[in-house]
Amino acid sequence: MIVKNEEKTLPRVLECAKKFSDEIVIVDTGSTDQTKKVAQKFTDKIFDFAWCDDFAKARNFSFSLASCDYQMWLDADDFITDENIEKINRLKNSPASVDVFMCKYVFGNMTYFRERILRRENHFQWFGFVHEVIAPSGKIEYTDIEIEHRKTAASDPKRNLRLYQNALKKGEKFGPREQYYYSRELYYDNQFQKAISGFRKFLKMKNLYPPDERAAYILIAECQINLGELDEALSTLFQAMQIIVPTSEICCKIAYLFDKKQLPLNAIFWFKAALCCEKQTSGFVQEEYEKIIPCIELSRLLYPSDLAEAKLFHEKAKALSPTNPYVKYNEQFFK
Q1: Do 105 and 233 sit in the same domain of this protein?
Q2: What is the pTM (predicted TM-score) of this model?
Q3: CATH of the domain at 262
Q4: Run of H or E residues at 323
Q5: Which long-range contacts (CB under 8 A, 24 or more apart) does 166-170 make?
Q6: Is 154 a domain residue?
Q7: Which whole-number Å values give the CA distances from 123 to 70, 118, 126, 295, in the listed order?
Q8: What is the per-residue pLDDT across 33-70, written as a single tens digit (0 to 9) for each?
Q9: Among 35, 85, 205, 304, which residue's CB has the most CB atoms within a 10 Å radius?
Q10: How far apart are CA 66 and CA 69, in angstroms?
């Protein structure tokens, strides 16, 4: 782990880690609180790293200190349930022929696979000074292990944006990954025109990671929606479908745009199309777009014209998520 000023969240994640780890390595990047004292309750392998605006360098330093056959990284805001801890412990009894174990990373309603447990002798290296990553290679196994990212306090929303801007001031040239994530930070900072320009620059680059390419179109459309440019947003999403395979998320966003334009039949068409798309397995996945959202919205949109079909989609939504607040509201409404 690399940490800084994590005295409040560190005990939670280390309580999880101690249930499966043979060794805990903590690299502190400049804490001014009690982070180190908290860490000392769980391990004596605590090291300092002089922060240099580069997360990959800090991660690589932490990996260089490991001594076990496999190494696994965690963030201070992460949490692992007992069920998933048991799954990790079972991995330790499996044949040592896998180089990379991919695990699901859960951020609220989003999930995506990350390279989480790696064979140490392969000397995997992190790259990317922000949003650092390892390129998996060798024998890769996808697991059903879930690591949850549970924030307990708001972090500095402009930290990553500042790191990118500082790199640009130093004259650094961004590759596709850096350009994509820099544009995302502009979007998060509500700099929508700059974000659109950044994503379009990214889309002109070569060797794009397909999930990032897909997300770039979606985020350009989100920027245009925020700017009140609904027709332009629709055009962007239709342009995306000429280049990439349509996803449930794209279909739902098109449907919402038609709904805003007061074209309910068009919205119904695209929400139904969302239910026909293949399940998304790469990149950031918001599973709600694949089933529950289309069913809820179809129930709402169909109610004025086709009560029977509206109830049918409500029942499908209820079967998927009976505790969803919109499903519970609709249940009372139909009664």
Answers
A1: no
A2: 0.88
A3: 1.25.40.10
A4: none
A5: 166/53, 167/53, 167/129
A6: no
A7: 11, 9, 10, 47
A8: 999 999 999 999 999 999 999 999 999 999 999 999 99
A9: 35
A10: 9
Same domain, 128 and 165: no
Cα 194 from Cα 36, distance rounded (Å): 40
Q: Is 273 exposed, middle or buried (0-12, 13-18, 19+ CB in 10 A)?
A: middle
| Structure token digits, residue 122 | 């392969």
Please check whether residue 43 is in contact with residue 26, taking contact to mean a CB–CB distance below 8 angstroms: yes
Provide the sign of the torsion angle of the four alpha carbons 42, 46, 51, 54, taken in this order: negative
Q: Are residues 265 and 200 in the same domain?
A: yes
The pLDDT tens digits for 165-202 are 999 999 999 999 999 999 999 999 999 999 999 999 99
Domain holding 330, by residue range, is: 159-334
Percent of the chain scored above 70 by pLDDT?
100
Q: What is the CATH number of the domain that holds 110?
A: 3.90.550.10
Identify whether 239 is part of a domain.
yes
- Mean pLDDT across the stretch 71-87? 97
Per DSSP, the residues of 82-141 read HHHHHHHHHHTTS-TT-SEEEEEEEETTEEEEEEEEEEGGG---EE-SSS-EE---SSEE
Instruction: Specify whether the CB–CB gap between 176 and 204 falls below 8 A.
Output: no
Q: Supply the mean pLDDT for the chain.
A: 95
